[in-house]
Amino acid sequence: MRKYIRILIISVALLFSVFVSVNFNPKKAFAKEDLYVRDWTIYAALKENGDLKITEDISYEFNEKFNGIYRYIDLNETYSITDIVVKEIESGKLKNFALKEKAKNGDEGVYTVEKKKDKTIIKIFSPSNDEVKTFRISYIINNAATKYNDTGELYYKFLDKDNETFIENFTVYIDLPFDDGSDRVKIFAHGPSNGTINKIDGTYNTLRYQLKTTNVESNTHIETRLLFPPEYIRESTNIVNKDRYQEILAEETALQKISEQQRIKKEFKKVLLGRISLIISSISIFVFIVIWVICRRKVEQDTVNRVYKDIPEDCTPALAAYITGLSINANIFFATVLDLFCKGYLKIKRSKDNKEASINDNFIIYKTKDADNTLLHHERYFMTWLFNDLGDGNSVCLKDIENYSRQSPQKFNKAMMTWKNKIKEEAFRRGYFDNSKSVHGLVLITLSVACIILGFITVINKNIIGLFDLAAGIVLLIYGLCLFYRLSYKGYILCRKWKGFTRYMKQLKPNLSAEDVADPLDKSLIYALGFGILKKDILSLGHDFYTEDGWLFWYVLFADTSSNTFSESINNSFADNSSYVGSFSDGGGGGIGGGGTGGF
Protein backbone atom coordinates (compact mmCIF):
# COMPACT_ATOMS: atom_id res chain seq x y z
CA MET A 1 0.00 0.00 0.00
CA ARG A 2 2.82 2.39 0.87
CA LYS A 3 4.25 1.88 -2.61
CA TYR A 4 1.05 3.12 -4.24
CA ILE A 5 0.79 6.05 -1.82
CA ARG A 6 4.31 7.07 -2.91
CA ILE A 7 3.24 6.78 -6.56
CA LEU A 8 0.19 8.98 -5.80
CA ILE A 9 2.30 11.66 -4.08
CA ILE A 10 4.95 11.65 -6.81
CA SER A 11 2.27 11.83 -9.53
CA VAL A 12 0.57 14.83 -7.85
CA ALA A 13 3.91 16.61 -7.45
CA LEU A 14 4.94 16.05 -11.08
CA LEU A 15 1.51 16.99 -12.46
CA PHE A 16 1.46 20.12 -10.27
CA SER A 17 4.83 21.16 -11.67
CA VAL A 18 3.54 20.72 -15.22
CA PHE A 19 0.34 22.64 -14.36
CA VAL A 20 2.29 25.58 -12.94
CA SER A 21 4.73 25.60 -15.87
CA VAL A 22 1.98 25.53 -18.48
CA ASN A 23 -0.15 28.20 -16.84
CA PHE A 24 2.58 30.60 -15.78
CA ASN A 25 5.20 30.14 -18.47
CA PRO A 26 4.01 27.96 -21.36
CA LYS A 27 7.11 28.77 -23.44
CA LYS A 28 9.43 27.17 -20.89
CA ALA A 29 7.05 24.32 -20.15
CA PHE A 30 7.75 22.54 -23.41
CA ALA A 31 10.67 21.83 -25.67
CA LYS A 32 12.56 24.84 -26.98
CA GLU A 33 11.00 26.16 -30.19
CA ASP A 34 13.11 26.65 -33.30
CA LEU A 35 12.06 30.30 -33.46
CA TYR A 36 10.06 32.53 -31.15
CA VAL A 37 9.67 36.23 -30.39
CA ARG A 38 11.17 37.32 -27.10
CA ASP A 39 9.82 40.85 -27.23
CA TRP A 40 7.56 42.68 -29.66
CA THR A 41 7.11 46.40 -29.00
CA ILE A 42 4.96 48.54 -31.28
CA TYR A 43 4.84 52.34 -31.32
CA ALA A 44 1.73 53.54 -33.19
CA ALA A 45 1.19 57.28 -33.62
CA LEU A 46 -2.07 58.57 -35.11
CA LYS A 47 -1.58 61.63 -37.31
CA GLU A 48 -4.01 64.49 -37.91
CA ASN A 49 -4.62 63.24 -41.47
CA GLY A 50 -5.77 59.86 -40.12
CA ASP A 51 -2.60 57.98 -41.05
CA LEU A 52 -1.08 55.59 -38.54
CA LYS A 53 2.70 55.69 -38.31
CA ILE A 54 3.98 52.42 -36.88
CA THR A 55 7.41 51.37 -35.65
CA GLU A 56 7.90 47.78 -34.53
CA ASP A 57 10.91 46.50 -32.60
CA ILE A 58 10.85 42.69 -32.73
CA SER A 59 13.44 40.52 -30.96
CA TYR A 60 13.68 36.98 -32.32
CA GLU A 61 15.44 34.04 -30.72
CA PHE A 62 16.79 31.66 -33.36
CA ASN A 63 17.42 28.16 -32.02
CA GLU A 64 17.95 26.63 -35.44
CA LYS A 65 19.34 27.82 -38.77
CA PHE A 66 17.16 30.36 -40.62
CA ASN A 67 17.71 32.57 -43.68
CA GLY A 68 15.75 35.38 -42.05
CA ILE A 69 12.27 36.38 -40.95
CA TYR A 70 9.09 37.62 -42.53
CA ARG A 71 6.42 40.05 -41.35
CA TYR A 72 3.11 40.11 -43.14
CA ILE A 73 0.42 42.78 -42.69
CA ASP A 74 -3.18 42.15 -43.67
CA LEU A 75 -4.95 45.11 -45.30
CA ASN A 76 -8.06 45.27 -47.44
CA GLU A 77 -8.27 47.34 -50.62
CA THR A 78 -9.50 50.45 -48.73
CA TYR A 79 -6.13 50.96 -47.05
CA SER A 80 -2.54 51.08 -48.20
CA ILE A 81 0.90 50.77 -46.65
CA THR A 82 3.83 53.06 -47.54
CA ASP A 83 7.27 54.15 -46.36
CA ILE A 84 8.44 50.70 -45.33
CA VAL A 85 11.91 50.80 -43.76
CA VAL A 86 13.83 47.91 -42.17
CA LYS A 87 16.78 48.16 -39.79
CA GLU A 88 18.56 45.91 -37.34
CA ILE A 89 19.28 47.06 -33.79
CA GLU A 90 22.72 45.79 -32.91
CA SER A 91 24.43 46.82 -29.65
CA GLY A 92 22.23 49.90 -29.48
CA LYS A 93 23.09 50.99 -33.02
CA LEU A 94 20.89 50.90 -36.12
CA LYS A 95 22.01 48.97 -39.17
CA ASN A 96 20.15 49.85 -42.37
CA PHE A 97 18.81 47.12 -44.65
CA ALA A 98 18.52 47.75 -48.39
CA LEU A 99 15.26 47.26 -50.27
CA LYS A 100 15.62 44.84 -53.18
CA GLU A 101 13.14 43.77 -55.80
CA LYS A 102 14.35 40.18 -55.48
CA ALA A 103 16.60 38.30 -53.07
CA LYS A 104 17.57 34.70 -52.45
CA ASN A 105 18.24 32.59 -49.39
CA GLY A 106 21.70 33.30 -48.06
CA ASP A 107 21.58 37.03 -48.87
CA GLU A 108 22.19 39.34 -45.95
CA GLY A 109 21.32 42.93 -45.11
CA VAL A 110 18.46 43.21 -47.60
CA TYR A 111 14.69 42.95 -47.57
CA THR A 112 11.91 42.58 -50.09
CA VAL A 113 8.31 43.79 -50.13
CA GLU A 114 5.62 41.79 -51.88
CA LYS A 115 2.20 43.40 -52.09
CA LYS A 116 -0.79 41.24 -52.76
CA LYS A 117 -4.50 42.03 -52.93
CA ASP A 118 -5.08 41.92 -49.17
CA LYS A 119 -1.61 41.36 -47.75
CA THR A 120 1.85 42.92 -47.70
CA ILE A 121 4.76 40.55 -47.02
CA ILE A 122 8.09 41.94 -45.79
CA LYS A 123 10.95 39.42 -46.00
CA ILE A 124 14.12 40.31 -44.12
CA PHE A 125 17.20 38.37 -45.22
CA SER A 126 19.56 37.86 -42.30
CA PRO A 127 20.99 34.31 -41.88
CA SER A 128 20.80 33.35 -38.21
CA ASN A 129 21.48 30.36 -35.97
CA ASP A 130 21.50 30.04 -32.16
CA GLU A 131 21.34 33.79 -31.55
CA VAL A 132 19.02 36.69 -30.77
CA LYS A 133 18.39 39.49 -33.27
CA THR A 134 16.22 42.60 -33.06
CA PHE A 135 14.74 44.20 -36.18
CA ARG A 136 12.99 47.54 -36.47
CA ILE A 137 10.24 47.73 -39.10
CA SER A 138 8.65 51.11 -39.81
CA TYR A 139 5.72 51.86 -42.09
CA ILE A 140 2.64 54.03 -42.48
CA ILE A 141 -0.94 52.79 -42.80
CA ASN A 142 -2.74 55.42 -44.86
CA ASN A 143 -6.23 56.49 -43.80
CA ALA A 144 -6.18 54.07 -40.88
CA ALA A 145 -8.69 56.18 -38.92
CA THR A 146 -12.24 56.97 -39.98
CA LYS A 147 -13.82 60.36 -39.41
CA TYR A 148 -17.54 60.25 -38.62
CA ASN A 149 -19.83 63.21 -37.88
CA ASP A 150 -19.70 62.68 -34.12
CA THR A 151 -16.49 60.72 -33.54
CA GLY A 152 -13.21 59.59 -34.92
CA GLU A 153 -12.43 55.86 -34.88
CA LEU A 154 -9.21 53.89 -35.07
CA TYR A 155 -10.00 50.18 -35.34
CA TYR A 156 -6.68 48.44 -35.92
CA LYS A 157 -5.50 44.88 -35.55
CA PHE A 158 -1.85 44.59 -34.51
CA LEU A 159 -1.73 40.79 -34.58
CA ASP A 160 -3.87 38.40 -36.57
CA LYS A 161 -5.04 34.88 -35.80
CA ASP A 162 -2.90 33.65 -38.70
CA ASN A 163 0.25 34.31 -36.69
CA GLU A 164 1.99 31.02 -35.89
CA THR A 165 4.93 32.27 -33.79
CA PHE A 166 4.93 32.28 -29.99
CA ILE A 167 5.47 35.75 -28.46
CA GLU A 168 6.82 36.05 -24.94
CA ASN A 169 6.13 39.77 -24.46
CA PHE A 170 3.84 41.92 -26.60
CA THR A 171 3.45 45.69 -25.95
CA VAL A 172 1.73 48.40 -27.95
CA TYR A 173 1.99 52.16 -27.36
CA ILE A 174 -0.71 54.21 -29.10
CA ASP A 175 -0.36 57.99 -29.35
CA LEU A 176 -3.25 60.29 -30.19
CA PRO A 177 -2.33 63.67 -31.65
CA PHE A 178 -4.10 65.66 -28.91
CA ASP A 179 -5.02 65.45 -25.27
CA ASP A 180 -7.70 68.00 -24.49
CA GLY A 181 -9.13 66.07 -21.58
CA SER A 182 -12.22 65.06 -23.54
CA ASP A 183 -14.43 62.41 -21.98
CA ARG A 184 -15.29 61.23 -25.47
CA VAL A 185 -11.98 59.36 -25.76
CA LYS A 186 -12.70 55.68 -25.26
CA ILE A 187 -10.38 52.73 -25.78
CA PHE A 188 -11.26 49.08 -26.14
CA ALA A 189 -9.02 46.09 -26.77
CA HIS A 190 -9.74 42.57 -27.99
CA GLY A 191 -7.38 39.69 -27.39
CA PRO A 192 -5.96 37.46 -24.63
CA SER A 193 -7.68 37.59 -21.25
CA ASN A 194 -4.41 38.49 -19.51
CA GLY A 195 -4.02 41.71 -21.55
CA THR A 196 -4.09 45.10 -19.84
CA ILE A 197 -4.85 48.69 -20.97
CA ASN A 198 -3.09 51.59 -19.26
CA LYS A 199 -3.17 55.33 -19.82
CA ILE A 200 0.32 56.79 -19.49
CA ASP A 201 1.92 60.17 -19.89
CA GLY A 202 2.33 61.24 -23.51
CA THR A 203 4.64 63.86 -24.95
CA TYR A 204 3.96 67.31 -26.39
CA ASN A 205 0.30 67.40 -25.32
CA THR A 206 -0.42 63.96 -26.84
CA LEU A 207 -2.42 61.14 -25.32
CA ARG A 208 -0.74 57.74 -24.95
CA TYR A 209 -2.19 54.34 -24.12
CA GLN A 210 -0.35 51.11 -23.48
CA LEU A 211 -1.63 47.63 -24.37
CA LYS A 212 0.39 44.82 -22.82
CA THR A 213 0.18 41.04 -22.69
CA THR A 214 2.55 38.11 -22.26
CA ASN A 215 2.92 34.53 -23.47
CA VAL A 216 0.90 35.02 -26.64
CA GLU A 217 0.22 31.66 -28.24
CA SER A 218 -0.11 31.17 -31.98
CA ASN A 219 -3.45 31.88 -33.66
CA THR A 220 -4.20 34.75 -31.26
CA HIS A 221 -5.40 38.16 -32.43
CA ILE A 222 -4.76 41.49 -30.66
CA GLU A 223 -6.56 44.65 -31.75
CA THR A 224 -7.65 48.01 -30.39
CA ARG A 225 -10.62 50.28 -31.04
CA LEU A 226 -10.20 53.95 -30.16
CA LEU A 227 -12.91 56.62 -30.18
CA PHE A 228 -11.96 60.30 -30.00
CA PRO A 229 -13.30 63.68 -31.06
CA PRO A 230 -13.31 63.99 -34.88
CA GLU A 231 -11.20 67.17 -34.53
CA TYR A 232 -8.24 64.96 -33.66
CA ILE A 233 -8.03 63.91 -37.35
CA ARG A 234 -9.21 67.16 -38.89
CA GLU A 235 -7.09 66.64 -42.03
CA SER A 236 -8.44 63.14 -42.74
CA THR A 237 -9.95 62.38 -46.13
CA ASN A 238 -11.45 59.11 -44.90
CA ILE A 239 -14.81 60.68 -44.04
CA VAL A 240 -18.11 58.93 -43.52
CA ASN A 241 -21.15 61.20 -43.27
CA LYS A 242 -22.74 59.30 -40.45
CA ASP A 243 -23.18 59.36 -36.65
CA ARG A 244 -21.48 56.32 -35.14
CA TYR A 245 -20.42 57.17 -31.59
CA GLN A 246 -23.38 55.69 -29.71
CA GLU A 247 -23.60 52.78 -32.12
CA ILE A 248 -19.95 51.85 -31.55
CA LEU A 249 -20.37 52.15 -27.78
CA ALA A 250 -23.34 49.81 -28.02
CA GLU A 251 -21.29 47.33 -30.06
CA GLU A 252 -18.48 47.32 -27.53
CA THR A 253 -20.92 47.07 -24.62
CA ALA A 254 -22.44 44.02 -26.28
CA LEU A 255 -18.99 42.50 -26.79
CA GLN A 256 -18.08 43.14 -23.16
CA LYS A 257 -21.37 41.62 -22.06
CA ILE A 258 -20.72 38.51 -24.16
CA SER A 259 -17.16 38.35 -22.82
CA GLU A 260 -18.42 38.62 -19.24
CA GLN A 261 -21.01 35.91 -19.86
CA GLN A 262 -18.30 33.69 -21.28
CA ARG A 263 -16.11 34.41 -18.27
CA ILE A 264 -18.91 33.52 -15.86
CA LYS A 265 -19.66 30.39 -17.87
CA LYS A 266 -16.01 29.36 -17.82
CA GLU A 267 -15.77 29.99 -14.07
CA PHE A 268 -18.95 27.97 -13.44
CA LYS A 269 -17.61 25.16 -15.62
CA LYS A 270 -14.27 25.31 -13.82
CA VAL A 271 -15.90 25.05 -10.37
CA LEU A 272 -18.33 22.32 -11.48
CA LEU A 273 -15.58 20.23 -13.03
CA GLY A 274 -13.52 20.67 -9.88
CA ARG A 275 -16.31 19.37 -7.69
CA ILE A 276 -17.03 16.43 -9.98
CA SER A 277 -13.31 15.62 -10.13
CA LEU A 278 -13.06 15.69 -6.35
CA ILE A 279 -16.03 13.36 -6.01
CA ILE A 280 -14.78 10.93 -8.68
CA SER A 281 -11.24 10.87 -7.32
CA SER A 282 -12.54 10.29 -3.77
CA ILE A 283 -14.76 7.42 -4.94
CA SER A 284 -11.88 5.97 -6.95
CA ILE A 285 -9.48 6.07 -4.02
CA PHE A 286 -12.13 4.46 -1.80
CA VAL A 287 -12.67 1.66 -4.35
CA PHE A 288 -8.89 1.26 -4.67
CA ILE A 289 -8.52 0.83 -0.89
CA VAL A 290 -11.37 -1.70 -0.75
CA ILE A 291 -9.92 -3.77 -3.61
CA TRP A 292 -6.43 -3.51 -2.16
CA VAL A 293 -7.71 -4.89 1.15
CA ILE A 294 -9.52 -7.72 -0.66
CA CYS A 295 -6.48 -8.62 -2.75
CA ARG A 296 -3.88 -8.09 -0.05
CA ARG A 297 -1.75 -11.11 0.66
CA LYS A 298 -1.21 -12.02 4.31
CA VAL A 299 2.41 -13.06 4.37
CA GLU A 300 4.70 -13.25 7.36
CA GLN A 301 7.52 -10.71 7.16
CA ASP A 302 10.02 -13.41 8.03
CA THR A 303 9.14 -15.18 4.78
CA VAL A 304 9.48 -11.95 2.79
CA ASN A 305 12.77 -10.79 4.27
CA ARG A 306 14.55 -14.10 4.78
CA VAL A 307 17.75 -14.85 2.88
CA TYR A 308 17.71 -18.24 1.11
CA LYS A 309 21.01 -20.03 0.62
CA ASP A 310 19.63 -22.92 -1.44
CA ILE A 311 17.70 -22.95 -4.70
CA PRO A 312 14.06 -22.39 -3.61
CA GLU A 313 12.51 -24.76 -6.15
CA ASP A 314 13.62 -27.25 -8.75
CA CYS A 315 12.71 -25.36 -11.91
CA THR A 316 14.63 -23.84 -14.81
CA PRO A 317 16.63 -20.59 -14.57
CA ALA A 318 14.34 -19.06 -17.23
CA LEU A 319 11.22 -19.90 -15.21
CA ALA A 320 12.77 -18.46 -12.04
CA ALA A 321 13.60 -15.25 -13.90
CA TYR A 322 10.07 -15.03 -15.32
CA ILE A 323 8.49 -15.30 -11.87
CA THR A 324 10.58 -12.36 -10.63
CA GLY A 325 9.74 -10.23 -13.68
CA LEU A 326 13.11 -10.11 -15.46
CA SER A 327 13.56 -9.53 -19.19
CA ILE A 328 15.04 -11.98 -21.67
CA ASN A 329 18.74 -11.27 -22.05
CA ALA A 330 22.08 -12.93 -22.66
CA ASN A 331 22.37 -14.05 -19.02
CA ILE A 332 19.09 -16.01 -19.11
CA PHE A 333 19.97 -17.49 -22.49
CA PHE A 334 23.34 -18.76 -21.31
CA ALA A 335 22.00 -19.90 -17.92
CA THR A 336 19.55 -22.08 -19.88
CA VAL A 337 22.42 -23.44 -21.98
CA LEU A 338 24.42 -24.31 -18.85
CA ASP A 339 21.38 -25.89 -17.20
CA LEU A 340 20.88 -28.16 -20.23
CA PHE A 341 24.64 -28.84 -20.16
CA CYS A 342 24.25 -30.12 -16.58
CA LYS A 343 21.31 -32.31 -17.61
CA GLY A 344 23.39 -33.91 -20.34
CA TYR A 345 21.60 -32.57 -23.43
CA LEU A 346 24.44 -30.52 -24.90
CA LYS A 347 28.14 -29.76 -24.77
CA ILE A 348 30.25 -26.77 -25.70
CA LYS A 349 33.52 -26.95 -27.59
CA ARG A 350 35.89 -24.44 -29.07
CA SER A 351 36.86 -24.63 -32.71
CA LYS A 352 40.53 -24.35 -31.83
CA ASP A 353 42.27 -26.62 -29.37
CA ASN A 354 43.93 -24.06 -27.13
CA LYS A 355 43.44 -22.96 -23.57
CA GLU A 356 43.07 -19.21 -24.06
CA ALA A 357 40.06 -17.73 -25.86
CA SER A 358 41.40 -15.48 -28.56
CA ILE A 359 39.65 -12.79 -30.57
CA ASN A 360 39.29 -15.11 -33.58
CA ASP A 361 37.94 -18.17 -31.72
CA ASN A 362 34.58 -19.64 -32.60
CA PHE A 363 32.61 -21.75 -30.13
CA ILE A 364 30.23 -24.56 -30.97
CA ILE A 365 27.31 -25.97 -28.97
CA TYR A 366 26.75 -29.69 -29.71
CA LYS A 367 23.57 -31.63 -29.03
CA THR A 368 24.43 -34.78 -27.09
CA LYS A 369 20.89 -36.18 -27.01
CA ASP A 370 17.47 -35.25 -28.31
CA ALA A 371 15.00 -33.37 -26.17
CA ASP A 372 12.61 -35.77 -24.44
CA ASN A 373 9.61 -35.59 -22.17
CA THR A 374 11.76 -35.23 -19.08
CA LEU A 375 12.33 -31.64 -20.21
CA LEU A 376 9.68 -28.97 -19.80
CA HIS A 377 7.87 -27.53 -22.84
CA HIS A 378 9.94 -24.37 -22.97
CA GLU A 379 13.15 -26.38 -22.65
CA ARG A 380 12.18 -28.59 -25.59
CA TYR A 381 11.29 -25.52 -27.65
CA PHE A 382 14.64 -23.95 -26.71
CA MET A 383 16.48 -27.05 -27.96
CA THR A 384 14.53 -27.01 -31.25
CA TRP A 385 15.13 -23.28 -31.75
CA LEU A 386 18.82 -23.55 -30.88
CA PHE A 387 19.77 -26.51 -33.03
CA ASN A 388 17.15 -26.73 -35.79
CA ASP A 389 16.44 -23.03 -36.44
CA LEU A 390 19.80 -21.48 -35.61
CA GLY A 391 22.02 -24.49 -36.30
CA ASP A 392 22.26 -27.52 -38.58
CA GLY A 393 20.20 -29.85 -36.37
CA ASN A 394 23.09 -31.19 -34.32
CA SER A 395 25.24 -28.14 -33.55
CA VAL A 396 25.30 -24.37 -33.70
CA CYS A 397 28.15 -21.84 -33.66
CA LEU A 398 27.94 -18.83 -31.39
CA LYS A 399 28.98 -16.66 -34.33
CA ASP A 400 26.04 -18.06 -36.32
CA ILE A 401 23.66 -17.06 -33.51
CA GLU A 402 25.15 -13.57 -33.44
CA ASN A 403 24.93 -13.18 -37.23
CA TYR A 404 21.36 -14.52 -37.31
CA SER A 405 20.21 -12.01 -34.68
CA ARG A 406 21.69 -9.18 -36.77
CA GLN A 407 20.60 -10.34 -40.22
CA SER A 408 17.11 -11.59 -39.25
CA PRO A 409 16.19 -9.61 -36.14
CA GLN A 410 12.44 -10.05 -36.61
CA LYS A 411 12.66 -13.82 -36.80
CA PHE A 412 15.07 -13.86 -33.85
CA ASN A 413 12.73 -11.69 -31.78
CA LYS A 414 9.70 -13.73 -32.75
CA ALA A 415 11.44 -16.91 -31.62
CA MET A 416 12.35 -15.32 -28.30
CA MET A 417 8.73 -14.20 -27.85
CA THR A 418 7.60 -17.77 -28.47
CA TRP A 419 10.12 -19.03 -25.93
CA LYS A 420 8.88 -16.45 -23.44
CA ASN A 421 5.28 -17.55 -23.99
CA LYS A 422 6.25 -21.17 -23.41
CA ILE A 423 7.85 -20.15 -20.11
CA LYS A 424 4.68 -18.19 -19.25
CA GLU A 425 2.50 -21.22 -19.96
CA GLU A 426 4.63 -23.33 -17.61
CA ALA A 427 4.32 -20.70 -14.89
CA PHE A 428 0.53 -20.77 -15.21
CA ARG A 429 0.48 -24.59 -15.25
CA ARG A 430 2.34 -24.62 -11.96
CA GLY A 431 -0.16 -22.19 -10.41
CA TYR A 432 2.27 -19.29 -10.01
CA PHE A 433 -0.28 -16.77 -11.35
CA ASP A 434 -3.82 -15.92 -10.28
CA ASN A 435 -6.48 -14.77 -12.77
CA SER A 436 -9.25 -14.55 -10.20
CA LYS A 437 -8.58 -10.86 -9.53
CA SER A 438 -8.97 -9.78 -13.20
CA VAL A 439 -12.50 -8.47 -12.51
CA HIS A 440 -11.13 -6.22 -9.79
CA GLY A 441 -8.46 -5.06 -12.19
CA LEU A 442 -11.06 -4.28 -14.86
CA VAL A 443 -13.02 -2.15 -12.36
CA LEU A 444 -9.90 -0.18 -11.46
CA ILE A 445 -8.86 0.31 -15.10
CA THR A 446 -12.36 1.56 -15.98
CA LEU A 447 -12.27 4.02 -13.09
CA SER A 448 -8.74 5.07 -14.03
CA VAL A 449 -9.80 5.94 -17.59
CA ALA A 450 -12.69 8.04 -16.20
CA CYS A 451 -10.34 9.77 -13.75
CA ILE A 452 -7.68 10.53 -16.36
CA ILE A 453 -10.16 11.90 -18.93
CA LEU A 454 -12.04 13.99 -16.34
CA GLY A 455 -8.80 15.17 -14.77
CA PHE A 456 -7.41 16.19 -18.14
CA ILE A 457 -10.56 18.18 -18.98
CA THR A 458 -10.51 19.82 -15.54
CA VAL A 459 -6.86 20.81 -15.85
CA ILE A 460 -7.48 22.27 -19.33
CA ASN A 461 -10.10 24.47 -17.66
CA LYS A 462 -7.35 25.61 -15.27
CA ASN A 463 -8.61 23.91 -12.13
CA ILE A 464 -5.82 22.39 -10.12
CA ILE A 465 -8.17 19.84 -8.54
CA GLY A 466 -7.98 17.90 -11.80
CA LEU A 467 -4.43 16.91 -10.83
CA PHE A 468 -5.80 14.67 -8.09
CA ASP A 469 -8.00 12.91 -10.64
CA LEU A 470 -5.01 12.41 -12.94
CA ALA A 471 -2.82 11.12 -10.12
CA ALA A 472 -5.55 8.81 -8.82
CA GLY A 473 -6.12 7.56 -12.37
CA ILE A 474 -2.42 6.72 -12.77
CA VAL A 475 -2.35 4.76 -9.50
CA LEU A 476 -5.55 2.88 -10.34
CA LEU A 477 -4.28 2.06 -13.84
CA ILE A 478 -0.98 0.67 -12.55
CA TYR A 479 -2.60 -1.44 -9.82
CA GLY A 480 -5.41 -2.55 -12.14
CA LEU A 481 -2.92 -3.82 -14.72
CA CYS A 482 -0.97 -5.57 -11.97
CA LEU A 483 -4.10 -7.52 -10.99
CA PHE A 484 -4.28 -8.95 -14.53
CA TYR A 485 -0.75 -10.34 -14.16
CA ARG A 486 -0.86 -11.06 -10.46
CA LEU A 487 1.18 -13.77 -8.82
CA SER A 488 -0.82 -16.32 -6.83
CA TYR A 489 -0.05 -16.84 -3.16
CA LYS A 490 2.20 -19.72 -4.15
CA GLY A 491 3.89 -17.70 -6.88
CA TYR A 492 4.33 -14.67 -4.61
CA ILE A 493 5.99 -16.73 -1.88
CA LEU A 494 8.26 -18.36 -4.45
CA CYS A 495 9.09 -14.96 -5.96
CA ARG A 496 10.11 -13.65 -2.53
CA LYS A 497 12.22 -16.74 -1.96
CA TRP A 498 14.02 -16.26 -5.29
CA LYS A 499 14.68 -12.63 -4.39
CA GLY A 500 16.02 -13.79 -1.01
CA PHE A 501 18.24 -16.21 -2.94
CA THR A 502 19.58 -13.38 -5.14
CA ARG A 503 20.38 -11.31 -2.03
CA TYR A 504 22.40 -14.20 -0.69
CA MET A 505 24.21 -14.82 -3.98
CA LYS A 506 25.15 -11.14 -4.29
CA GLN A 507 26.92 -11.34 -0.93
CA LEU A 508 28.42 -14.79 -1.48
CA LYS A 509 32.12 -15.16 -2.09
CA PRO A 510 32.64 -18.65 -3.58
CA ASN A 511 35.28 -20.73 -1.89
CA LEU A 512 35.64 -23.62 -4.33
CA SER A 513 38.07 -26.45 -3.80
CA ALA A 514 39.67 -28.40 -6.62
CA GLU A 515 37.06 -31.15 -6.07
CA ASP A 516 34.23 -28.63 -6.41
CA VAL A 517 35.69 -27.43 -9.67
CA ALA A 518 36.15 -30.93 -11.02
CA ASP A 519 32.59 -32.03 -10.21
CA PRO A 520 30.37 -29.03 -9.46
CA LEU A 521 27.04 -30.42 -8.26
CA ASP A 522 25.56 -27.18 -6.89
CA LYS A 523 23.90 -25.23 -9.71
CA SER A 524 23.39 -22.05 -7.63
CA LEU A 525 25.84 -20.16 -9.83
CA ILE A 526 23.74 -20.98 -12.92
CA TYR A 527 20.54 -19.63 -11.37
CA ALA A 528 22.40 -16.60 -10.08
CA LEU A 529 23.65 -16.04 -13.63
CA GLY A 530 20.01 -15.93 -14.81
CA PHE A 531 19.46 -13.12 -12.31
CA GLY A 532 22.45 -11.20 -13.67
CA ILE A 533 24.80 -12.15 -10.82
CA LEU A 534 28.24 -13.16 -12.13
CA LYS A 535 30.74 -14.41 -9.60
CA LYS A 536 34.07 -13.31 -11.03
CA ASP A 537 35.80 -14.16 -7.75
CA ILE A 538 36.38 -17.74 -8.89
CA LEU A 539 38.49 -16.50 -11.81
CA SER A 540 41.40 -16.27 -9.38
CA LEU A 541 41.65 -20.05 -9.38
CA GLY A 542 43.16 -19.94 -12.86
CA HIS A 543 42.24 -21.81 -16.05
CA ASP A 544 44.30 -24.89 -15.10
CA PHE A 545 41.70 -25.80 -12.47
CA TYR A 546 38.91 -26.14 -15.04
CA THR A 547 38.12 -28.67 -17.71
CA GLU A 548 36.06 -28.05 -20.85
CA ASP A 549 33.95 -31.08 -19.99
CA GLY A 550 32.44 -29.28 -17.02
CA TRP A 551 29.93 -26.44 -17.17
CA LEU A 552 31.96 -24.39 -14.68
CA PHE A 553 34.66 -23.86 -17.31
CA TRP A 554 32.17 -22.17 -19.63
CA TYR A 555 30.65 -20.23 -16.75
CA VAL A 556 34.09 -18.81 -15.97
CA LEU A 557 34.71 -18.04 -19.63
CA PHE A 558 31.37 -16.21 -19.87
CA ALA A 559 32.06 -14.32 -16.62
CA ASP A 560 35.47 -13.25 -17.90
CA THR A 561 34.31 -10.35 -20.12
CA SER A 562 37.85 -9.11 -20.78
CA SER A 563 38.11 -9.39 -24.57
CA ASN A 564 37.01 -12.94 -25.31
CA THR A 565 34.70 -13.79 -28.18
CA PHE A 566 32.73 -16.33 -26.12
CA SER A 567 30.95 -13.75 -23.94
CA GLU A 568 30.97 -11.16 -26.74
CA SER A 569 29.09 -13.42 -29.17
CA ILE A 570 26.36 -14.20 -26.66
CA ASN A 571 25.99 -10.63 -25.43
CA ASN A 572 26.01 -9.19 -28.97
CA SER A 573 23.18 -11.52 -29.99
CA PHE A 574 20.90 -9.90 -27.42
CA ALA A 575 22.29 -6.35 -27.44
CA ASP A 576 19.66 -4.93 -29.84
CA ASN A 577 16.80 -7.33 -29.21
CA SER A 578 15.89 -7.41 -25.53
CA SER A 579 13.83 -4.22 -25.71
CA TYR A 580 11.65 -5.76 -28.41
CA VAL A 581 10.69 -8.73 -26.25
CA GLY A 582 9.83 -6.66 -23.21
CA SER A 583 9.46 -7.73 -19.64
CA PHE A 584 8.64 -11.11 -18.31
CA SER A 585 6.09 -9.60 -16.02
CA ASP A 586 -13.22 36.55 -27.01
CA GLY A 587 -14.69 38.93 -29.55
CA GLY A 588 -13.75 41.48 -32.14
CA GLY A 589 -11.81 40.78 -35.26
CA GLY A 590 -13.17 43.66 -37.32
CA GLY A 591 -10.12 45.91 -37.30
CA ILE A 592 -7.84 46.55 -40.25
CA GLY A 593 -4.22 45.39 -40.24
CA GLY A 594 -3.04 42.38 -38.33
CA GLY A 595 -0.82 39.71 -39.83
CA GLY A 596 1.99 37.94 -38.07
CA THR A 597 5.61 36.89 -38.25
CA GLY A 598 7.85 33.85 -38.62
CA GLY A 599 11.10 32.53 -40.01
CA PHE A 600 12.21 31.08 -43.34
From TrEMBL:
TM helices/strands, residue ranges: 6-24, 272-294, 319-342, 439-460, 466-487
Record carries keyword Transmembrane helix: yes
Keywords: Membrane, Transmembrane, Transmembrane helix
Residue ranges annotated for the DUF2207 domain, each copy included: 40-228
Pfam families: DUF2207 (PF09972), DUF2207_C (PF20990)
Annotated ranges, domain Predicted membrane protein YciQ-like C-terminal: 308-533
InterPro entries with a match to the protein in the record: DUF2207 (IPR018702), YciQ-like_C (IPR048389)
Protein's UniProt keywords contain Membrane: yes
Protein name: Uncharacterized protein
Originating species: Herbinix hemicellulosilytica
Source species taxonomy: Bacteria, Bacillati, Bacillota, Clostridia, Lachnospirales
